[in-house]
Amino acid sequence: MNPAQGPSERGREIAARVEAFVREAVSPYERDPRCGAHGPSDELVDELRAKARAAGVLTPHIPDGGHLSHQDVALVLRAAGLSPLGPVAVNVAAPDEGNMYLLGKVASAEQKARFLKPMLEGRARSAFFMTEPSEEGGAGSDPSMMKTTAGLDGNHWVVNGRKAFITGAEGAKVGIVMAKSDDGASMFLVDLPMEGIRIERVLDTIDSSMPGGHAIVTLDNVRIPADQMLGQAGEGFKMAQIRLAPARLTHCMRWWGAARRANEIATAYACKRHAFGKPLVDHEGVGFMLADNLIDLKQAELMIDWCAGVLDTGDLGVAESSMTKVAVSEALFRIADRCVQVMGGTGVTGDTIVEQVFREIRAFRIYDGPTEVHKWSLAKKVKRDWAVGQAAAG
Question: Between the CA of residue 129 and those of 146, 215, 387, what are the distances in Å?
């Protein structure tokens, strides 16, 4: 698709239905006691997905088994993000959305039937086992440091290692495990729970929107049938990029919706709340913050749409993905921070979702690559491009 074409009418219609569903049916659950420190409970997830299924908005980015263009996905996921529960309710949340995209691209027909189908139907959550504990020198922002190993034993692969910050591992039914074989990094599909895969603990983290939280996991002599390898041995890093580049972008889409909703709440507060003889919004210190929010929202929206268009052409590179992730995550955090400030004491309470959006977007600046790692990657490109230019100039 030409980026200039923009989203389709079908995408706009789906996004409108998702927005109406999230605002009307999902947002009333935001104070539900089943929303805990480690995300909404599986009972709540099932209840919300049943409502989404009945409303015809479950897994809306892959209607009838065909993935929408990323320009359409941008509209749909921004609408889903209007509530912290929205992506989970309509089945476009991380890590499931990225995992569904990867399996749709590289899994065999048998693997799709066994592992992807229940995810598309909203009956199974998934987890992506890549990151490792930093204290052991394992893979984090640098996946080449991977310590988890996979060795072939007959018609099984035997995997050993530890993983960290594994989102949704508790309660997941599908796992994608990344390990280092003799041929290089490889990926494996597993049913969960599974013998040898043990959750050590679920970490207490600043964010709380993702079911199952983020876990430390031990893999102890996990025997995985050879036909559950995803792709070929040694293709793990290549497949990780197939997943991670779009996943960075879809994170931006979801959290843009959350920032928009937080700004709506802060704007309503500033227009209704009076101080020193006039509404807060009429004080420049407050009104200018809300004006800055509109600017950041629009710039972030344009960056997301530009990157989605590039992705649809098949020309998305690491640089475009990194620039978008940095620009959008930093802009959305500024928005969330201003919303808290505008609302004062109310902004730091759980009376609205503003404080949660602040926490969630703060975490977003780290996961899928911290801002500094992406800037480092871009700086290397700057140096490389300069060298190429110098060589061409003679």
Answer: 11, 10, 37
What per-residue confidence (pLDDT) applies to 351? 97
Name the β-bridge partners of 266.
Answer: none
**Token pair of 218 as six digits:** 């031990």
Phi-psi group of 35: left, alpha or beta (phi > 0 → left; psi -120 to 50 → alpha; rest → beta): beta
Residue 4 has pLDDT above 60, yes or no: no
Residue 262: which of 337, 212, 365 has the closest Cα? 337
- Residue 298 amino acid letter: K
Count of positions (residues) in the chain:
394
For domain 3-93, the CATH superfamily is Acyl-CoA dehydrogenase/oxidase, N-terminal domain (1.10.540.10)
- Neighbouring-strand partners of residue 161: 219
User: In sequence order, what are the beta bridge partners of 286?
Assistant: none
3-state SS class at 391: helix
Q: Which residue has the tokens 């919706």?
A: 257
Residue ranges, comma separated, of all CATH 1.20.140.10 domains in the chain are: 237-386
Residue 77: CB atoms within 10 A of its CB come to: 32
Name the superfamily (CATH) of residues 126-233. Answer: Butyryl-CoA Dehydrogenase, subunit A, domain 2 (2.40.110.10)
DSSP H or E segment with residue 254: helix 236-272
pLDDT, average across residues 338-345? 98
Residues 6+ apart with CB under 8 A from 322: 248, 369, 374, 375, 377, 378
- How far, in Å, CA of 85 to CA of 122, rounded? 14
Question: Which of these ranges, 226-230, 245-249, 276-280, has the smallest mean pLDDT?
Answer: 245-249
User: Shortest CA distance to 79 belongs to which of 303, 231, 258?
Assistant: 258
- The whole-number pLDDT of residue 244 equals 84
Q: How far lies 111's CA from each of 100, 114, 132, 295, in Å? A: 12, 5, 26, 45
The alpha carbons of the chain give a radius of gyration, in whole angstroms, of 21
Retrieve residue 215's tokens. Answer: 């876990």
Give the model confidence (pLDDT) of 352-371 as tens digits. Answer: 999 999 999 999 999 888 99
- What are φ and ψ of residue 164, in 5° steps? -135, 155
| pLDDT tens track for 10-30 | 999 999 999 999 999 999 999
pLDDT digits (tens, 9 = 90+) for 296-312: 999 999 999 999 999 99
